[in-house]
């Protein structure tokens, strides 16, 4: 049997499907979605699909293993900056779940609404986007105020760990650079950064109460650990307050949401 293969159509459909699957994965795992990295990873998957379709040089079991364990792992690790076997393995399972969801939704749309392939694909995109959006909203509302993140600050060769609360109410920004500002207590500066070469002054305004300025320190770098993900911020700005941030010591840093979602 002979048939015509349009490689450009195959590539485009694979890129769109992989992009949607990565978007659903980000919503399922609660990881920030980075469209440019996801598009690059999806394009890589599209190239692989076109290659194995035009040049079927691998046995089917080996091709499936390379696609799932190789290409899938590379896609998730690149898109979400994952490190470590367990993190990538978790992402692979979530990616498989996202693909299964999309396949089921596609079958449902075609069989119950009798949609042609083109309209079914468009409907699948809208359906997947809506499902990911609702899942992200649900995760944000249920997890708001509960997550505690490990944060490491580095200053003049010293390092100290903090237990950070991601605070949606923290709208502090450094007025010159516009960088979001984290907050720590002076108590936690002792023996770490008590003497500094220079200070910044961060203006603040509490709702309905007072306003003023807070002293701020520019650290060498900050490492933030969010579950399986880890990312680094160079020269973060951190404001220092006199009183402890938490009465029971549940957290020692207020982290602005802008740092996590950036």
Salient structural properties:
alpha+beta; Cathepsin D, subunit A, domain 1; nine-stranded mixed sheet; 6 helices
Task: Tell me what the structure shows.
By secondary structure, this protein is an alpha+beta fold. It folds into two domains: 7-143; 148-261, Cathepsin D, subunit A, domain 1 (Beta Barrel). It is built from six helices and nine strands. The protein has helices at residues 7-29, 35-54, 60-80, 85-112, 117-143, 257-261, and strands at residues 148-155, 158-167, 181-185, 200-205, 211-218, 221-226, 229-234, 237-241, 253-256. Strands 4-5-8-3-9-2-1-6-7 form a nine-stranded mixed beta sheet. A hairpin with a 2-residue loop joins β1 (148-155) and β2. The protein is elongated. The model has no long low-confidence stretch (mean pLDDT 84).
Topology of this structure?
Elements: H1 7-29, H2 35-54, H3 60-80, H4 85-112, H5 117-143, E1 148-155, E2 158-167, E3 181-185, E4 200-205, E5 211-218, E6 221-226, E7 229-234, E8 237-241, E9 253-256, H6 257-261
Parallel strand pairs: 2-9, 3-8
Antiparallel strand pairs: 1-2, 1-6, 3-9, 4-5, 5-8, 6-7
Helix pairs in contact: 1-2, 1-4, 1-5, 2-3, 3-4, 4-5
Which H/E pattern describes the elements? HHHHHEEEEEEEEEH
Task: State the helical fraction.
Answer: 40-55%
**Rg, Å, rounded:** 23 Å
Structurally, how many domains make up the residues? 2
Q: State the secondary-structure class.
A: alpha+beta
| Shape type | elongated
The number of helical runs is 6
- Number of distinct beta strands: 9
Mean pLDDT: 84
Q: Low-confidence segments, ≥5 residues, pLDDT <50?
A: none
Distance between the termini: 51 Å
Share in β-strands:
15-25%
Question: Strands of the biggest beta sheet: in what spatial order?
Answer: 4-5-8-3-9-2-1-6-7
Biggest sheet character? 9 strands, mixed
